[in-house]
Prior knowledge:
- It is built from 14 helices and 20 strands.
- The protein is α/β, with parallel strands linked by helices.
- The chain has an eight-stranded mixed sheet with strand order 8-7-9-3-10-15-6-16, with helices on both faces. The protein has a two-stranded antiparallel sheet with strand order 1-2.
- Strand 12 and strand 13 form a beta hairpin.
- The two termini are 40 Å apart.
Amino acid sequence: MRKVVGCKGPVTRRSFLEVGSLGICGLGLSHLLRLKAQARQPDASPVETSVILVWLPGGPPHMETFDMKPDAPVEYRGEFRPIRTVVPGMEVCEHLPRFAKIADKYSIIRSIAHEFADHGGGHKRFLTGRDPREPTGFVNDYPMVGSIVAKMREGRSCQKGVPDYVNFCDHGRQHIDVFSFGSAYLGPETHPFTVPGDPSRPEFQVHNLCLHPDLAGRLEDRRLLLAGFDRLAKEIDGSGVMDALDEFNRRAIELLTSPRVRQAFDLSQESPAIREKYGRHAWGQRALLARRLIEAGSSFVTVVMENPLPSGGLPKYAVYNWDSHAVNCHIFDDFRLRAPYFDQAVTALIEDVYLRGLDHHVMIIVTGEFGRTPRINPAVGTQTGVMQPGRDHWPQAMSVVVAGGRMRTGQVVGATNARGEYPKERPLTPNDLWATMFRHLGIDIHHTFPDHAGRPMPILPYGQVISELL
């Protein structure tokens, strides 16, 4: 089995943004803005609402996190025990004590399921709301929900002065098809502004916004030089194309040099106490950056949490992401390693959103593409060379945490059977989750876009808002 989801290795990217090309996410920034303008749709939601998606690639084990079965046979229940939370009757894993303390600020959905057990198929099914044409591979046939939000809010990046759709991930994982974040027929102008790296490291930079020192001092000179060329070109061009080009270049430079953008990505603006609360590690500081971007005006921010130690080596019993097959890791030792990072980063984000009065504005979603097999599957570990426990892919049951968004919290929605195998109460699909999210954003799921063949495609083919959350 693979240890990473669709890892194709590091993707060649510019290590810094050269003003001469204004490269951003593999496109020239001015070209990206031009693509956005060409496909612009009216802003569907003037209300300042937003989403933070905490994405857990590989599939977190629902029976080691938020749907424990202490009375199931030992080959199902595993080593861990549930603990009480501040909400009577609501329990979580003993290794998530911070989640237990703030359970009144989120809800657990235990009955979402689908039918695609491959990582690629699971990513595509979950993130697009549609059955993929191929059950494997990570290239989308349909747009990821983040791209849909970007499309529906076209043009806000320049209006707000910050990228409207942002993705934080590990270095080497920024390619658009690593996590099925592709936009399909909505086009590359709806791709996220991707920020790879570990924000807890002193050398961390937002490369796509950072000018090389040798170039930064020449920015004004280049503006003057371009102005001279533009005046000459305008004498020849009578079509107005040059005027449009000037506008795109102006917006690109404004975004590049925007104090609002630089401040949003500047973690030194936060107090040491807040940074410590989130955790001085990649997951914690990414979550903090997500909150800062949302406050600055971004609409959709994805925080990818794969390797809890991206700047250091993992022990042999652990796996890079949440893909906890026995051949990849000892599932219980691996979870003991990653649980404290996850527990700290996500609960700090949830608490911070409420403390700052953002809970009506921001919806937080925490999920992976599926759960893990209820029955433990032992095998010899590739790295350890010894027999160890693990769980395989299981889309028939999973747990999703949601918070904010004016939703009712402190509750469990749905339930699985006694062995955690499938929903027995309130069966739901990923589409119901996305219908709830789009409602929060004020986006009509019946709105259509033309696909590559020109056929009108609704945002979601089906899905109902989860009424318990309203």
